[in-house]
Amino acid sequence: MRAETALFMRDHVLSLVSHDLRSPLNAIHSWAYVLERKLDPADAAAQRALAGIRSGVDQQVQLLEQAVDTTRAETKALALRREGFTVRAALERASDDIRRALGAARNVTIAIDSRLEGQSCDGDSERLTEALWVMLAFAIEASAPGETVKLASSIDGGFWRTEVAYTMSFAALRDAELPHAFEPFARKQAQQPREAGRIAWVLALAQRVALAHGGTFEQSAAGDGEPSSLVLRVPTAAV
């Protein structure tokens, strides 16, 4: 699961790089045309400089298309193996696994609040269980020892909604003496301010799985010592 998390995080970062670099490159390309109309066509030095600017932009765009976009193709088009499964089983499988792998060692308790029993969902049970695992793992990592991570899950209006609530602790994310599931740079990035609608990189797997199912994934904004939540919402039937 750590390897899967790292794979999706890598592709998520590449996606952000591809998106965020294209805007300034487009601006440089547009200003090059403005300069072309202003410069003297007979000025050889100025024309060489302009050609260099355009060549640099073209090289960067080619790099984005060939290296960045191609590399992230594996998770961009996420294939699902849909089947009916009991959602309670997925909840318990994810929580039991992360409790043994990380929760007990960090003295963080997982409390499940759900009346779901035999209700089912038509989706990729493995991928959705992975998404729940990542959500719980992050919440445990971001919780101080002795805290409780709360998982609430329900089905309403044709959607399966699961919320993981915890209290954010930057000290817990930074503490090298505590056991961790995620890399130091991922935990460091998770403490930084995020633009509206963006998530911590390490949660990319949960977001991608939600989108592949036609659902949504949200991470609330929270500072150090403040309540925070992660919400996964997917339709119970294929869309």
Structure, described:
InterPro entries: HATPase_C_sf, His_kinase_dom, HisK_dim/P_dom, HisK_dim/P_sf. Keywords: Kinase, Phosphoprotein, Transferase. It is an enzyme of class 2 (transferase). Residues 16-238 form the Histidine kinase domain. This protein is α+β, with helices and mostly antiparallel strands and 239 residues long. It folds into 2 domains: 2-76; 83-235, Heat Shock Protein 90 (2-Layer Sandwich), CATH 3.30.565.10. Helix content is 53%, strand content 18%. It is built from 8 helices and 7 strands, in the order H-H-H-E-H-E-E-H-E-E-H-H-H-E-E. The chain has helices at 2-38, 44-71, 73-76, 87-106, 125-141, 170-174, 184-190, 204-212, and strands at residues 83-86, 109-113, 120-123, 148-156, 159-167, 216-219, 227-235. The strands form 2 sheets. It has a 5-stranded mixed β-sheet with strand order 2-4-5-7-6. Strands 1-3 form a two-stranded antiparallel sheet. Strand 4 and strand 5 form a beta hairpin. The longest helix is centred in the first third of the chain and has 37 residues, at 2-38. The two termini are 27 Å apart.
